[in-house]
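Workshop exercise sheet. Pairs work together: one partner reads the sequence aloud, the other fills in the structure field after running the prediction. Swap roles for the next sheet.
Pair: D.N. / O.F.
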Amino acid sequence: SGEFGGLGIEVGMENGFVKVIAPIDDTPAQRAGVRSGDLIIRLDDQPVKGMTLDEAVRQMRGKPGTKLRLTIVREGQDKPIEITVVRDVIKTVSVKHRMLDPGFGYVRVSQFQARTPEDMLTGIGALKREAGGTLKGLVLDLRDNPGGVLNAAVAISDAFLTSGTIVYTEGRIADSQLKFKAAPDDVVEGAPIVVLVNGGSASASEIVAGALQDHKRAVIMGQQTFGKGSVQTIVPVNERTAVKLTTARYFTPNGRSIQAEGIVPDILLENVRLTRGEDSVTQLKEADLAGHLSNPEGNGRTNGAPKKGSSDTKSADSETDYALSEALNLLKGLAILRPDVAA
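Structure field:
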């Protein structure tokens, strides 16, 4: 339903502690300053060490309006910091949109829920109407998007592709062999796309970024993604117990496994200060998690050395979001090369 009571963070376990994969947009945790890569060592006065992930999550959830003090270890900080978060009902709005400049749209996807593709198409439709019928370019922001529903990721990728494979899975059992293909029609009619990613972009986000990158339909910009490319299956043991097994891996159209490797951007933006608090030294990746599934095909970066982007041009958002400014500048340059959208 997209609604629950708690802090608003996607978390995992690392060496017995809770690590933040990504804060959810417009939630108490994000507003309080919790960042991707933070290591939570205490919940109020109770040490996290020794808790299971489910136990920690249950303690983080609670009655709206109540407070929870997080003791956090953050790389770059000399000592642990404390952040107090006021619990609230978490209503996740997975899609937001706005016009950056005349003809250049922005769509933020914070999670992949069942309604996310429909909401994204509605937002793009509104942007196209505002632009007079067509867009000159689009920024798709997947930063700090921890993933979600596979079918939503497939549908969003399909919205920008006209043919070919979107993603496929390979595993040891027949039921894990899946392949998803794109249907005709491109919702932005071939307009340039820049996809923003970072270390908090995981799972379904990486499926979208990998598909658009392999088909050369979008320029991927930002930081290397989390690297969660495994398929988990829950197998019931009895009425009260189940086992979660890793049964397959996701592969991009060109056959790249993103497990523990992530998607390497075409244009790498490192050591930049962003509104979401990204910093290259604080990024947690799947490969950092204890017991992560290794990638036998992996050898570090899988698609070549990325280019580093730089620009002195200021946009309306450049003072608070460097990466978005760079994305807009790139779109404007790409639009110049397309006479049909440059007018």
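Discussion prompt: The radius of gyration is 20 Å. What would you look at next?
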